[in-house]
Amino acid sequence: MDPLLLLLLLHGLLLLPLAALLLYRHSPPFQFLCKVAFFNCWIVALATLLSPVAALRGRSVENMRLLRAALLPLKHLYGIRMRVRDSELLRLPGPFVIVCNHQASLDLMGMVEVIPERCVPIAKRELLYLGTVGWACWLSGIIFIDRCRRDAAIEVIARTASAMRQENLSVWVFPEGTRNPGKSMLPFKRGAFHLAVQAQVPIVPIVISPYWDFFSPEEKRFTSGTCTIRVLPRVETLGLSPKDVPKLTESVRQAMAEALAEMSMSDHRDQDMEQPLLGPGEDRGSPQGQGDTARSRK
Ligand SMILES: CCCCCCCC/C=C\CCCCCCCC(=O)SCCNC(=O)CCNC(=O)[C@H](O)C(C)(C)COP(=O)(O)OP(=O)(O)OC[C@H]1O[C@@H](n2cnc3c(N)ncnc32)[C@H](O)[C@@H]1OP(=O)(O)O
Ligand SMILES: CCCCCCCCCCCCCC(=O)OC[C@@H](O)COP(=O)(O)O
């Protein structure tokens, strides 16, 4: 090959990372893409690294600790400050069902921030087929349901209800049943509430504040920011029967919707925001507000 051409090619190769770096710093959509890709790569990498360790123990809720440890560093990498309100409401003597709003995959960061000991999420069956990620989830005792087959899902819930009492197991459910980036919550599926009534355990609602300040897939924006997680008072189900489930579902949803609306109003941006390790965050000096949350300071 012509040495001159080779030299040019080498220069080109050296310039490529530089160009990517420049693009990352100056193009929010490119930054969004990189950050989302990194999020998924992190999960695949950690699942691949830790699954063999988890496999030594076999399928067990104890592996949820590994899963937590794997996901906890993400908030530092992304410069997302987590504020947890009323976490003491999660300290209950027995098992319970947590219901939480579901905006995006980012919820995993909030989930590992507050998820108590001996608690497993319910997840869609599709996650099982994500290679080592599915394997890691299975090893951690995550409960899978097939959302397209209601009878099978109801059967899994019934088995989970007895396991909850026998094994002192709590369960985390996203009752919207799917990710919802919208400003209000979707109608709730009833599985979580049937589960709590069947097991006769309390329901603890958790609300994660909207991500608009720092994360918007539509606008391809992903900066640093603050996320608030609020634990609401538990709702008892002792003595309730299946016929009470619709009312129970509605009242819990109402309480969560009110908390969400309240949290959407308050300003989540803080002066002492954490600096992301993954490069530039948001322009803190910028006067024009991003997202459409009210900027009233408390
Ligand atoms: C080891 C180291 C590793 C390191 C690496 C880290 C890797 C980590 C990676 C990843 C971590 C994991 C992350 C997990 C997060 C995943 C999140 C998700 O996947 S969210 C999607 C799944 N969640 C749900 O779908 C909610 C639960 N679903 C339900 O509750 C539904 O109710 C369901 C599926 C059971 C049925 O859905 P329907 O669409 O038919 O809707 P309906 O309105 O609820 O029910 C219809 C009728 O059935 C009755 N029904 C529902 N459930 C019942 C039940 N259990 N018993 C009796 N009747 C029931 C209801 O009462 C209703 O009947 P009437 O209208 O009242 O007459
Ligand atoms: C073989 C490699 C594949 C790469 C996979 C990347 C791993 C990412 C795993 C992230 C788990 C996120 C959990 C989550 O948030 O699931 C979404 C469901 O709750 C709702 O699903 P949907 O909105 O109804 O599609």
Automatic annotation (TrEMBL):
Catalytic activities: pentadecanoyl-CoA + 1-(9Z-octadecenoyl)-sn-glycero-3-phosphate = 1-(9Z)-octadecenoyl-2-pentadecanoyl-sn-glycero-3-phosphate + CoA; 1-(9Z-octadecenoyl)-sn-glycero-3-phosphate + tetradecanoyl-CoA = 1-(9Z)-octadecenoyl-2-tetradecanoyl-sn-glycero-3-phosphate + CoA; a 1-acyl-sn-glycero-3-phosphate + an acyl-CoA = a 1,2-diacyl-sn-glycero-3-phosphate + CoA; 1-(6Z,9Z,12Z-octadecatrienoyl)-sn-glycero-3-phosphate + (9Z)-octadecenoyl-CoA = (6Z,9Z,12Z)-octadecatrienoyl-2-(9Z)-octadecenoyl-sn-glycero-3-phosphate + CoA
Metabolic or biological pathway: Phospholipid metabolism; CDP-diacylglycerol biosynthesis; CDP-diacylglycerol from sn-glycerol 3-phosphate: step 2/3
Positions of transmembrane segments: 36-56
Transferase listed as a keyword: yes
GO terms classed as biological process: phosphatidic acid biosynthetic process
InterPro entries with a match to the protein in the record: AGP_acyltrans (IPR004552), Plipid/glycerol_acylTrfase (IPR002123)
Residue span, Phospholipid/glycerol acyltransferase domain: 96-211
Biased composition (Polar residues): 287-298
GO molecular function: 1-acylglycerol-3-phosphate O-acyltransferase activity
Sorted UniProt keywords: Acyltransferase, Lipid biosynthesis, Lipid metabolism, Membrane, Phospholipid biosynthesis, Phospholipid metabolism, Transferase, Transmembrane, Transmembrane helix
CC terms in the record's Gene Ontology section: endoplasmic reticulum; membrane
The protein's Enzyme Commission number: 2.3.1.51
Region span, Disordered: 260-298
Recorded family membership: Belongs to the 1-acyl-sn-glycerol-3-phosphate acyltransferase family.
Record's comment describing the protein's domains: The HXXXXD motif is essential for acyltransferase activity and may constitute the binding site for the phosphate moiety of the glycerol-3-phosphate.
Function: Converts 1-acyl-sn-glycerol-3-phosphate (lysophosphatidic acid or LPA) into 1,2-diacyl-sn-glycerol-3-phosphate (phosphatidic acid or PA) by incorporating an acyl moiety at the sn-2 position of the glycerol backbone.
Protein name: 1-acyl-sn-glycerol-3-phosphate acyltransferase
